[in-house]
Amino acid sequence: MHKDIKEILYTEEEIKAKCDELAKQIDQDYAGQEILLVGLLKGSVPFMAELAKHLKSDVKFDFMSVSSYSGVESKTLVVRQDIKEDIRGKNVLIVEDILDTGKTLYNVKEMLEKRHAKSVKIVTLLDKEEGRVFDMKADYSGFKIPNAFVVGYGLDFNERYRQLPYIGILKEDCYKK
Question: Of residues 4, 100, 127, 156, which has the active-site annotation?
Fold first, then answer.
């Protein structure tokens, strides 16, 4: 375990098993239809890669990089990198590492729905319900987590810890300096 981690919440094995479980549910819901996986950079990359390995459905990949203006109540989204794919009439599955306040996912989903996709759904590895500000729910959710600062498996603090093969709680003294 990394020296800055207080506690491991989910091991690599538990994450892989959860990805398999989510993939089965997604495959059942999309039965024979193509899905465009839209990963939100950078955090979703490890989760999206693992989830895709377990999917039997026909999938394509695309990515977005977005950020929100400061202020929890803000609904303003800055798109730093947009998807390349024309999504008109397609099934879009937004892939996110964590659903926290809901602000980013609320805005991304709304934006993609305006592009006339057949469907726009959300899959998240982690769901932190205590942090929710926007009325937002994932269609597919991996793990419910406590209101703690988590890192690993794509989640970072100042671009660090993304490479950890597990999800852990970061020690307070690492982010409250």
Answer: 100
